[in-house]
Specification:
Helix content is about 50%, strand content about 20%. With about 250 residues, it is of the alpha+beta class. The protein has two domains: about 140 residues, no CATH class; about 90 residues, Immunoglobulin-like, CATH 2.60.40. The strands form two sheets. Strands 4-5-1-8-9 form a five-stranded mixed sheet, with no helix packed on it. A hairpin with a 6-residue loop joins strand 2 and strand 3. The protein is elongated and about 70 Å long.
Length: about 250
């Protein structure tokens, strides 16, 4: 490795710390708020690969309210809104599928503004949070798709040097990885609110990449590099919005 490459790698390491710090600050920002204009309070029961005839009914009140259902890819979201919330914070549900039924309950009061529980049909258990490895799977899928899209743009604009691709991978793994982790940690499972969060987060990614890419890549003029950043992030935003509509988040 020549001296120029070593110096560039050193710069990448230094900037990496700055990018990680910036993305950490981004991840600390809230995605949803409890104001009237924001997403209303909700209780979401998340089911992986739900049967078509699955029904979940809240039997904690005299009306026995059935959840509204939304299915995305391999997941089903069984949602109760603020009007369905119980004053005593005690919830009991009847789950029915394939001619059989069982009951499960939430034993402790709800704490968060938007509450997510996972229903394990095999174990007949309702547990707080999302199922194991869900975040890792979804972040990996979205990150891989983003790298492919932006990598195609990077190649078409004539970037061929190994050091340029190393910079490309390093910066995108930090910025896009942090963005997707932030989206997954936001708590919301509703596409419209996540799309707003995506646009907000993508702005910070765009600013970070608009600074980092021209600073580290010397293969072409800065004008071409900035054109890459603009096109790549625009396509990522469009693709991200589409992914939110067809894949779990």
């Amino acid at each position: 490795m020549n001296k120029e490459s070593k110096n560039c790698l050193l710069k990448i390491k230094r900037c990496l710390y700055v990018l990680i710090l910036s993305m950490a600050m981004l991840s600390s920002l809230p995605v949803t708020a409890s104001a009237n204009s924001a997403e209303p309070p909700s209780l979401v029961i998340l089911v992986k690969n739900p049967p078509d005839d699955l029904a979940i009914v809240m039997v904690s009140n005299e009306h026995q309210t059935e959840a509204s259902v939304r299915r995305v890819a391999w997941e089903g979201y069984y949602v109760y809104r603020s009007r369905d919330m119980q004053a005593d914070g005690q919830y009991r549900f009847k789950v029915a599928t394939k001619g059989e039924s069982f009951e499960c309950a939430i034993d402790s009061p709800l704490q968060d503004y938007n509450n997510v529980f996972t229903l394990d049909l095999a174990q007949e258990e309702l547990t707080p949070g999302k199922y194991p490895f869900r975040q890792a799977i979804l972040v990996s899928i979205r990150l891989l798709l983003t790298l492919i899209i932006e990598g195609v743009v990077f190649w078409l604009l004539g970037f061929r040097q190994r050091i340029s691709w190393l910079v490309f991978l390093t910066i995108n793994l930090v910025t896009q990885g942090a963005l997707n982790l932030w989206l997954n940690n936001g708590g919301s499972l509703i596409p419209s609110y996540l799309l707003i969060a995506l646009i907000f987060g993508e702005f910070f990614v765009f600013v970070a990449e608009l600074i980092a890419f021209p600073y580290f890549i010397k293969e072409h003029k800065k004008s071409r590099i900035m054109i890459y950043v603009i096109i790549a992030n625009l396509l990522s935003l469009i693709a991200g919005g589409y992914i939110i509509s067809v894949l779990p988040v």
